[in-house]
Structures are given as C-alpha cells and as structure tokens.
Amino acid sequence: MKPDKTGLILEGGGLRGIYTSGVLRFFMDKGITFPYVVGVSMGACNGANYVSDQAERNRIVNTRFVNDPRYISYRRLFLKGELFGMNFIFNTIPNQLVPFDYQAFNSSPQKFIVGATDCNTGQAVYFDHKEFQDDFLLILQASCSLPFMAHVTKYKEMELMDGGISDSIPLHKSMTDGNKKHVLILTQPEGYRKKPSSWNRLVGLKYPQYPGLYQALKTRHQRYNEVSDEIDSLLESQKVFAIRPKKKLKIGRAERNKEKLMLAYDTGYYDAMDRYEDLVSYLSNDGL
After folding, report:
1. Is residue 40 helix, strand or coil?
2. Contact 198, 179 (CB under 8 A)
3. How many DSSP H helices and E strands does the chain contain?
4. Cβ atoms 159, 210 nearer than 8 A
5. 8-state DSSP, 17
6. Of 7, 59, 87, 286, which has the fewest beta carbons less than 10 angstroms from its beta carbon?
7. pLDDT in tens, 5-20
8. pTM of the model as a whole
9. Is 249:16 a contact under the CB 8 Å cutoff?
10. pLDDT tens digits for 58-114?
C-alpha cells in the first residue's frame, strides 16, 4: 500500500516513543509505505528506520542498550550535563553496533522531514533528508536534544535543540507541504493535555543567551494543547487518522526497564493491527 498525498506524522516523547516503533513495525510488515514522513525527537529516530526499511532496528536500538551507561547515565548528566550519550547513540550505534542502512535511506523515494528548534528564535526549523544527507545524523541528534539533558547542537549558523519544543506534533507542517490526508502516531492517550512545566523558571538561568528557547518552552504546553484540540476536531470529521495508546503508557522518557519497553512496543504493534481495517478505509476514501 502506497497512499498518495498522505503524510505520516510522528510525535516524540523520549523512550515512550517505542510505542511508535511497534506501530511502524506493523506498517512495515503490511508493506504500508507513506510518501511523506515528518517527525520530531524520538519520532524522527523512528521515522529514519522506517524510511530505511529496517524493520527490527527501532526495537533493537531502543531496548538493547538502555542499561548501558554509554546510552543513559545519570552520572554523566551530573558531571557533563548529558543524560543520553549522544556520540554513542548517533555515532557508535549506527556506524558500528547496529548498522544504519545509509544507502537505502538516501535512495528512498519517501520524503522525510525532521523538525528541530532554533534556540535563538524559538521557532521550528525543518530538514529534508534529501538535502542534508551528509549531516543527517547531526540533525537527528539536534531534534533529540532535550533541555537540561543534552547540549545545544550547533549546525552551520544555527543552534538547535529538541524539535518537540517548538512543534510537538507537526500536523501543520504536513498540511503546509500539500498533503491531503494525515496519519498521526501519538504517544499519549486521548484526552491528554500538557500542563506548564515546573522547569520553566529555570530555563532563563540555564540558557540566558537563548530568549527564543525560553519563550518556546514557556508556551509549549499551549501549542501542544491547541494542536491536540484541533486533532480531536479533525478526527470527528474524519479529516485525519490517529493511532495512539488507549491509556497512558507506564514508561518514562528515560525508561530503563526492558520489560516495560517491550510491552509498550507490543502495544503499539497490536493497536496498529486493531486499527488496520479503519486505516485502509481512511486511506481508500477519495472523498476526504
């Protein structure tokens, strides 16, 4: 199945995104190939393996190394300000331990967009993998760089951080790029709304040189809730299609319990299976 003019939109959420990994594995098992994919943070990492058609890679990368201090280390966070080992994740793993298929990724006919946040302006910036092939892992790293848990990623003239800060669910990007249908994989259940972060008051102290980042973080919950309200409205009118957990996943952004991670992965897979007929109906309806 290769639906025309349809965007696949992937929310982030740290290791909660392994739910998305399960959904995408089902899509790959069924041969569902979306011509347009956009993701932020963990959603972008999931999307990269979907575009490179490496069905097992998301599951392996997001479970095998969670107890390896090179992957997650609170000691490193305390000493160096980095919870996730970015060089390990975006260099050692794809180039040595679980090889990423660069050839398949670069030659894929799918359009793949990664969102990040410009720290100076606070605005979302988007990168097309066809235009930034040589720098793609660095851009992916930028999209996953959470405040207080990672360093700012410098790319050319930009200073970038996590894409979910400025555009947590990039539905409007898919719309702007001309897609007529939109399939969302969300990592929070129906009815979830964000509250203002208790970390907001510390952002100005941690990042005084980035007023744009401060403003984006301060208002993130508002943008998230607005797009969530919009999605609910569009779902009622069948203008979009969403797969999301039926209840809140019992895993955190930096989850290290492999059993919980595998349960979330399997939940995503079987949720996608349950919604398969509805998805086919949505994609086949030319009247939408």
Report:
1. strand
2. no
3. 13, 8
4. yes
5. G
6. 286
7. 999 999 999 999 999 9
8. 0.95
9. yes
10. 999 999 999 999 999 999 999 999 999 999 999 999 999 999 999 999 999 999 999
Q: Phi and psi for 123 in degrees, rounded to 5?
A: -95, 155
Count Cβ neighbours within 10 Å for each residue of 148-182 and write b for 16 or more, e otherwise: ebbebbebeebbbbbbbbbbbbbbebbeebebebb
CB 68 within 8 A of CB 38: no
What is the residue type of 281?
S
Task: For tokens 């100076």, name the residue.
Answer: 120
Regions in the chain scoring below 70 on pLDDT: 1, 287-288
Tokens read off for 127: 């990168």
pLDDT at 2: 72
Phi first, then psi, for residue 62 (nearest 5°) are -90, 5
Which pLDDT score, from 0 to 100, does residue 202 have? Answer: 87
User: Shortest CA distance to 55 belongs to which of 104, 10, 110?
Assistant: 104
User: Can you give the length of the chain in residues?
Assistant: 288
